[in-house]
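Full entry
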Amino acid sequence: MKRFLSVFFLITAISVFSQTEDNPIVWESSINQISETEYDVIFTAKLLQEWHLYSQENPEGASQPLEILIPEDRNGYKLVGKATESQTKKEYSEVWEKEEIFFADTAIITQRLVVIDKNTTAVTLEIYGQVCKQACIQIEESFSFSLNGKKIKEEVVILNDKSKTLTEKLQLDLKNTALLETAAKTDATSGGSLFNIFLLGFVGGLLALLTPCVFPMIPLTVSFFTKQSQSKSKGIFNAVLYGVFIVIIYMLLSVPFHLIDGLDPSILNTISTNIWLNIFFFVILVFFSLSFFGFYEITLPSSWGTKMDAASDVGGFVGIFFMALTLAIVSFSCTGPILGSLLAGSLGTVGNPAFQLSAGMTGFGLALALPFALFALFPNLLNSLPKSGGWLNTTKVVLGFLELAFAFKFLSNSDLVGHWDLLKREVFIGLWIVIFSGLALYLFGKIKFPHDAVLKKTSFFRVSFGVLVFAFVIYLIPGTFKNPTWNLNALSGFPPPQFYSIYEQASDCPLGLDCYKDFDEGLQAAKDANKPILLDFTGWACVNCRKMEENVWSAPAIYTLLKEEYILISLYVDDNEKELPKAAQFDFRKANGNIKKIKTYGDKWSTFQILNFKNASQPYYILMNADLEILNSPQQYTDIKTYKSWLEKGIENFSKQQLK
């Protein structure tokens, strides 16, 4: 787990650096004929200074070893054993706790292959691996060689007739598309969502301030600036600059996600709904929570803090920047879990997750930075700060319980996307009841953790908070019943949807509505019933989709409209574990010429959404008729009043078109 944590933070924090040296390795290749059927392919890799390329022999559980493969669609030749390598080096890795084997400066790799089909005139080999400095970059290279001396023509993938037919079928002949083009101008969701994420990050930063890693640093750092500077104004300026650098550092952590998001409009949605990534987040958050409980400490390599601390001795702006960076590193054991939760939560939000993360990180950094600037401006306020003590550890333990509860959201995402049927709604709520009951008992002094001092007297604040937590447990209990007294609408988006239940349900659609999960079937139903269509782009792991269904769709006036006036088509864009029938799988050529394999329902409906509506966010709602005429501008996460007016306008426009 230590490895996972180190790599997780390393990739997130230093990817900015890696972008400045995005080509640290240059390849040369050649092929030599050994016999009538055998050839040696020679790869020469030249590495920038201090960069390492890892050997085929690098131990398991360390950096990714080099691998040479034949592409799946190629045949007529095969590899003969492992490639031979030029001289390598060995060095112990503190991150992996193993001796790693790597190339430095230059690597020469020779792979022998044998041609088993005499008609083969060219061969292609692929190299996979990893080059690292402080950061790591994945290597994926493809090399083609002619065996008869003739130039290899650049291969263009030609779609077969099935792929062409299914691609054409995926593209809709939409009418009245001007309404789609105005959607971006009328949608106010993104701005509000960014502000909400900013506030969430700010609250996370305030919580981080109340931890033992950060709180004691406030008076020490402010006193340093005010006392060590040549003048009071200079001390204030340096402290404020220190705060500004803290904000900048946390903002920079989100930069790699903007670069990732630029590769493909749906890539962050794919990441956020990936089963194994959600399990990874679950494990990490459980690991974090146990750390907050005091069972162990999470620390980054001590050398990082030492290097940053040494760099902070440099005078001027550079020294202050490295002081801020030192704070970020040494306080990681307390801020890391909160940052990890913010990262994981932002990836699943509506709109652009990269911008959501930037907003959250900015809010987090601002909350951390404010005290340093505030107390530098008004140093007398330092006397009003409470002394460090047991209350800081109590704060950590409370955060540990919250991290543990939040962790099960990610396990639930994996369960929903994977259709495992393990963590049903009532099971999830039951786990939360156990967790928050534990928190209440802790606050009442009935449970102790390793770093807790003897509780001689329970404070009024602690008892009051414990009563609130106990009241929350009472609120949760009906959620485990077949016919609950209330439906936990305040928690919409966290527990699994109401139809994902241990009790038998009349429908597997939201709120028991009738819905279609295939566009063509829903389109035919709309033609037969002569009703308009509500096209619902949703996801199993989409928090705001659940909030819309349980808070907005459940409103009586809206529920009646959906049930009686519309044909509901719900397309799950993250259904990436459920494969399409073989006859429905095909290759799709994207706008940049690359080929995307459409193998799962998630592949199909996410591509369908981007292709036709130029949007990759969820929830995303379209109103249309069976002739594919758009009836109103698209709608996303919104309130009851707006959504009701939007549906009614769609019905009005549908009626007008019927009269034409």
Remarks:
- Confidence is low (pLDDT under 50) at residues 1-22, 184-192, 261-265.
- DSSP finds 22 helices and 17 strands in the chain.
